[in-house]
Amino acid sequence: MSAVLEIMSMVVQSICLSLVALLLSASVAARPVKNGFDLAGALLPPTEIRRGGPPRDGIPAIYTPKFVRADEQSDVEPDDRVLGVFVGGIAKAYPVAILDYHEVVNDWTQDTHMVITYCPLCGSGMAFHAGADGQGVFGVSGLLYNSDVLLYDHGSESLWSQILGKAIAGPKRGELLDQIPLAHVKYAQWLERHPASWVLSRETGYKGINYGRGPEGYRGYERSRRIFFPVSSRDDRYHPKSWVLGIQADGVTKAYPFEELRRTSGVVRDRLGEREIIVRYADEAAWAEDDQGNPLTAIRLFWFAWIAFHPDTEVYTAAAGDG
After folding, report:
1. Which of 74, 146, 248, 289 could form a disulfide with 308 if both were Cys (CB 3.0 to 4.6 A apart)?
2. What three-state secondary structure class fits 95?
């Protein structure tokens, strides 16, 4: 009788172990994974995190950027758009024509490790401080939220929303990146402020890319009303691809449409929360300063992208005598 009981006990244990294994397997299989990134516990709905087309690193980030002095380069025209940063007394310009193909540049200026990012779909250029180790080396995940690029850091493989500047999945979930003021302007405008600037070279280490000709999929995109991927909020007050300068300060978000800024003298004094700010506009470019003339963090991007992330944003409208 004891032998029978022992056998029955072994059978029950075997069944229990099989059920546990089956449940664990089902749990793993049910975890949302896209492009190799585990989205379990993501701060955004996994169904709204979409594959952009290329796989992880299918859009190759730049990890060893090379630069030339502004007076030694011949590839950037005065009207070409660049992302410019001035950190530690050093000015650097990153041509959008290069970023269209790479979206992320990992760079260093003296003691500052930074990541320069650009999303062609949203027209958004942003720069952030990054850590000194592998946690601060970023790549392109191939995933999007609200049509905006999701970055990932090599150290923890957490996913980061560019426009939010925030980790939305992975071990770093909820952490914020420290934004660096960045000018998204014409190259000639950048050189007016920083004639001794360094310029990102087309010698990126990637062969066969014609940086003088934009990616085929984006040709005509800036003029079209079409948005390639779904977004969570829409607003038809302006053309979806109208440029705006978006600012977030003291818990307030506000958009300054170029369409409105064109109707001003080019200098708009405003208040965001408790902060006095100045928005300047010239030659199809805009930037923001505090009342002492120091640059503020702001984003130049398409209207649809700003409103997708900030549906309750305030919007500046020009009035007679503004500026």
Report:
1. 146
2. strand
- Least-confidence region, from 81-85, 110-114, 257-261: 110-114
Give the model's confidence band at 12: pLDDT under 50 very low, under 70 low, under 90 confident, else very high. very low
Rounded to whole angstroms, the Cα distance separating 266 from 280 reads: 5
Closest CA to 136 of 120, 117, 149, 163: 117
Cα–Cα distance for residue pair 195/185, rounded to 1 Å: 14
DSSP string, 140-159: EEEEEETTEEEEEETTT--E
What is the C-alpha to C-alpha distance for residues 137 and 119, in angstroms, rounded to an integer? 17
Residue 304, burial from CB neighbour count under 10 angstroms (0-12, 13-18, 19+): buried
User: What is the total residue count of the chain?
Assistant: 323
In 3D space, the residue among 117, 112, 104 whose CA is nearest the CA of residue 132 turns out to be 112
Residues 6+ apart with CB under 8 A from 130: 106, 113, 114, 115, 136, 137, 138, 153, 177
Checking if the pLDDT of 131 tops 90, the result is no
Q: How far apart are CA 17 and CA 40, in angstroms?
A: 25
| CA–CA dist 244, 261 (Å, integer) | 9
- Listed residue (163, 143, 174, 167) closest to 153, CA to CA: 167
Helices within 31-163 (DSSP H only)? 96-102
Which element (helix H / strand E) includes 315? Answer: strand 314-315
Model-wide pTM > 0.85: yes
Dihedral in degrees, nearest 10, Cα atoms 81, 98, 128, 301: 40
Residue 60 DSSP class: P
Residues 129-138 as b or e (16 or more Cβ within 10 Å = b)? ebeeeebbbb
Domain boundaries, the chain: 51-200, 233-315
Q: Which two tokens stand for residue 188?
A: 């000639």
